[in-house]
Amino acid sequence: MNTRFRNWPDKPQRESLMRSYWILCSTHEAASSFLDIFESDRKRRKAKGAPTDEEQDLLRAMLAFATSGLDSMIKQLVKDALPRIVRIDKGSSQMFRSYIEKRMQKDDKLDHKFLSTILVSRFPQRELINDLVNTLCTPSLQSRDQLLRVASYFNIDSTSIISDHDLVKQIFDARNQISHEMDVDFNQSNRSRRPRRKEDMIHYADEIFRIAQAFLSQVESKMAIPTQ
Hints:
Layout: H1 18-45, H2 53-80, H3 82-88, H4 90-103, E1 105-106, E2 109-110, H5 112-119, H6 124-137, H7 144-153, H8 165-181, H9 198-223
Antiparallel strand pairs: 1-2
């Protein structure tokens, strides 16, 4: 498998993490393809100076795929690994307990419908864990805070996956400008699109892949905790 970026993931030892691993590998390859096309087009045209808007679209797609891949990988980890980790990791179990305490409330009152659903379930704990999994997998994980929120349920310390909070905020701000605004700069009178430098976009993608690899590694280490 080929990648143009750093932090190619190590293959997990646990079979339950392989789907997340393959998502991350495929994301590397897709993002690399956009970068290859960008450079091939520049070479073919013998281009010099700033890239065209069409060429920058390839860089935008590269970053969009990288962040989408991170989103997909983490959600797969939530589905495949979190149910075990909340049972064996004390910090994760406490987060799960706090979630259920809040989930039981509705408009400052006991949510009787939710409670009855759990009580009649054949496997109440499994039902509660599935509720947490669905809650974490519903929103798009396209911000630093959303990413750290999910990490907290795995009891993963934020410093083990994010070393530069400002950089990560810049990355997700750029991603959201690209995905939600087509990168149009509305502060400009001519509504031109924001310029994107190749070096910056590669740096952003590299950081996304570093975070993804760190997240996967941290989850695998949690999976190794002996069952209590």
